[in-house]
Description:
Number of helices: 4
Strand order of the largest sheet: 1-2-3-4-5
Structural class: alpha/beta
CATH architecture: 2-Layer Sandwich
Shape: globular
Strand content: 25-35%
Pfam families: STAS
CATH superfamily: STAS domain
Largest sheet: 5 strands, mixed
Order of helices and strands: EEHEHEHHE
Domain STAS: 6-102
Protein name: Anti-anti-sigma factor
InterPro entries: STAS_dom, STAS_dom_sf
GO molecular function, one term: anti-sigma factor antagonist activity
Distance between the termini: 30 Å
Number of domains: 1
CATH topology: Transcription Regulator spoIIAA
Amino acid sequence: MSTPLTVRTERKADGQVVLLATGEIDASNVADFAEALNAGVADSTDVITVDLSAVDYLDSAAINALAPHAESLQIIANPVLMRVLMVSGLTELAKIWPATDL
């Protein structure tokens, strides 16, 4: 059974938009993730942070939601996600750090 996805957006004191996701992102819930991501990008004039440190799994649907915005994102990823992010080529398009590097 998959872990339910929760997504919330915050604005830091300096105005930076941060999207925080928890759980798993797959075809069954990617619409919620993509909607929050699209809104965050539209609401920001700067790069937004996507915090995936509490995401245990993502599939190609999540990669497809992230890719169009890659140049506007900095992603903090759970280390278990790093391989799929590298194989997908997303690490070449967006700034991505494993959560343990922070």
